[in-house]
Design goal:
- Keywords: Signal.
- Residues 1-23 form the signal peptide.
- Helices cover 30% and strands 22% of the residues.
- It is of the alpha+beta class and 134 residues long.
- The chain folds into two domains: 1-30; 46-133, no CATH class.
- The radius of gyration is 23 Å and the shape is globular.
């Protein structure tokens, strides 16, 4: 009986020790290795980027009440969205993006002020990060 208890204790210790090592390795990994800081790089103007966009991904309302187009750091996305809070709240966040990563943020509000569409694109990879339509 003591042998079985000792073996069970040994197995549990090995499993938990391996789990702890794996968790420690993951904590030491850079959380934004896929989307690192690109604050020193230059990217196209926000209006040029908008005009090159596939309009299936994002398109401003015709005769919009409000249009916002800004190139900002990832950490400042929600500051741009705050400018349109009068028409509805929209926020975004995400893991894996360095706070100093450059992004394009777009907000458009319909003429009647009842519908708001947002989109955030990574400036370097030119990929859609988040979008909302309401």
């Amino acid at each position: 009986m003591k042998k079985i208890s000792f073996i069970a204790f040994l197995l549990i210790s090995l499993i938990l020790g391996g789990y702890h090592s794996l968790a420690e390795q993951n904590n030491n990994a850079k959380p934004w290795y896929k989307y690192p800081d690109n604050s020193e790089k230059n990217f196209m103007d926000v209006d040029v980027f908008y005009n090159s966009l596939d309009k299936n991904l994002y398109k401003e309302y015709q005769n919009a009440e409000l249009n916002i187009r800004e190139k900002v750091f990832f950490k400042d996305i929600n500051k741009v969205f705050e400018k349109a809070d009068k028409y509805g709240s929209s926020r975004t966040s995400g893991d894996g993006f360095h706070p100093q990563r450059q992004v394009y943020v777009f907000v458009t509000v319909s003429k009647d002020g009842k519908h708001m569409t947002t989109a955030v694109f990574d400036a370097e990879k030119q990929r859609l990060i988040s979008a909302s339509k309401g």
